[in-house]
């Protein structure tokens, strides 16, 4: 029975992603963003559970990627499509569809991950959940705009630029650390602990507006960290 538990959690990730899509289609992007957050939690815990139970299988790996391509591929594309559609009249009719560039590059990212032996203990390129959390934070920023960011967030060229930037980061040859703790000793996890502490502080201070900053912090700490992926 225990070998099926991680797959069950992966299915909850997929189900949450489907619910996020339903709310996006209904125009309720804020609720959709919360379901994305739930998908990210399930995505984190399915791997954690598999490692804790010492179970893995090719089916589990494929199921995880199939769930991720919905929750962290189709969903951010749908978010960006809707945001671009809201961003103003007089824009080219094709522009909102450019949001699905993220979907295409997310699928490429997941395919690369499944076939890249260098990414067992770290990542190369921005993980799809991190990309999706940036996009999903935008409706939350709009719904709770304490810092008057709405004109900036709903600028179509800002949205298009963010789409292209995130898409490029997904497939970039950029080594990034993973939040996988083999031990909890400070000397083995300095970058991870610093990242988590700063992230909690930013969330407490800025709420949803902190999420893009947290992902930027993640990239910057990875760049300055001496840790690099193991090439085999």
UniProtKB/TrEMBL annotation:
GO molecular function ontology, one term from the record: phosphotransferase activity, for other substituted phosphate groups
Membrane topology of this protein: Multi-pass membrane protein
InterPro entries in the record: CDP-alcohol_PTase-I, CDP-OH_P_trans, CDP-OH_PTrfase_TM_dom, CDP_ALCOHOL_P_TRANSF_CS
Record's keyword terms, sorted: Lipid biosynthesis, Lipid metabolism, Membrane, Phospholipid biosynthesis, Phospholipid metabolism, Transferase, Transmembrane, Transmembrane helix
Spans traversing the lipid bilayer: 7-26, 93-111, 123-142, 157-181, 193-221
Highest taxon, organism lineage: Bacteria
Chief location of this protein within or outside the cell: membrane
Protein name: CDP-diacylglycerol--serine O-phosphatidyltransferase
Species name: Hymenobacter metallilatus
């Amino acid at each position: 029975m225990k070998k099926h538990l991680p797959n069950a959690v992966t299915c909850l990730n997929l189900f949450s992603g489907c619910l996020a899509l339903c709310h996006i289609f209904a125009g309720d992007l804020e609720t959709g963003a919360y379901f994305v957050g739930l998908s990210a939690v399930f995505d984190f815990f399915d791997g954690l559970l598999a490692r804790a139970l010492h179970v893995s299988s090719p089916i589990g790996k494929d199921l995880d990627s199939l769930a991720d391509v919905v929750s962290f591929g189709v969903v951010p594309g749908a978010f960006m499509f809707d945001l671009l559609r809201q961003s103003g009249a007089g824009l080219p009719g094709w522009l909102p569809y450019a949001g699905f560039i993220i979907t295409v590059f997310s699928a490429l990212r997941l395919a690369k991950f499944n076939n890249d032996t260098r990414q067992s203990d770290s990542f190369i390129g921005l993980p799809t959940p991190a990309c999706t959390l940036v996009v999903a934070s935008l409706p939350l920023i709009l719904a709770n705009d304490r810092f008057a960011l709405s004109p900036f967030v709903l600028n179509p060229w800002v949205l298009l630029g963010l789409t292209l930037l995130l898409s490029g980061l997904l497939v970039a040859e950029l080594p990034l650390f993973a939040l996988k703790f083999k031990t909890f000793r400070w000397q083995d996890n300095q970058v991870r602990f610093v990242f988590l502490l700063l992230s909690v502080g930013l969330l407490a201070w800025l709420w949803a507006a902190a999420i893009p900053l947290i992902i930027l912090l993640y990239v910057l700490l990875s760049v300055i960290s001496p840790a690099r992926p193991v090439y085999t």
